[in-house]
Write a structure and sequence with these properties.
disordered N terminus, binds zinc ion, three-stranded antiparallel sheet, 11 strands, 262 residues, Alpha-Beta Plaits
Length: 262
Amino acid sequence: MKVRLVFIVYFLFLNFSFGSDSTNELKYLEELVSISSGTQDVEGVSSVQKNVASQLQNLGFEILENKSDVDTVKSTQTVAIKKGKNAKFITFVTHADTVFEKLNPFKWSDDKKRLVGSGVGDNKGGLVVTLYTIKNLLENPKFEYSIRVIISPNEETGSMGFRKQLKSYGDDSALILGMEPALEDGSIVEARKGVRWYHIKIAGREAHAGTAPENGVSACHELSKKIVKILDLNEYSKGNTINVGHVDGGKDKFNIVCGSAE
Ligand SMILES: [Zn+2]
């Protein structure tokens, strides 16, 4: 079966609002937003995951924790599962981490109907919408699908170490929903770019740039050449884009052939 991925583009700072009677949802959103959970904050991320997982547990979900394939990623991926009559899953993909490491101040709007601040929309709002959507689904006697909720710990940095698992959820899902905020005008996003990040390190050989440059091999020069080639891979018409985000190399001496660059 063809699985349709629905991703909803996110904004870092987003007004978030529910319908008219949404006191519980907003209270819960406030509770989640109050927990600082930048991607590197393993404890904070875990605390958000546990909070949502316990809510799902109350709805009869079984909770699993998947370890990352990458040693440096200490956070786990929380997966909540509830089997239905239909073995196929509706899979909700969410995440507990936020872009900003430190808790950014959030505030209520004047009419007290909205919370405004970082992480409110992306993706604490997504978590709340997921939870309350599931509550509604479970109240519907006609709903027979199994449900799976993924609470990723590091979506903002590319879900490192969880690629295999994320891919496998397509095998038994009738539908996978990325529970991210909509576009500014409210429209749903049906596709989203993937991302790969590379860290390139170049080792050269230092030498005196004035008296014996021929003894050196410049890592900086080599990196510059590579960057030019890498940028040639941009395919704007296809939406494949490349960004060299940070460059570092050499020492603070202009007369030394650059020994290393990254
Ligand atoms: Zn997000």
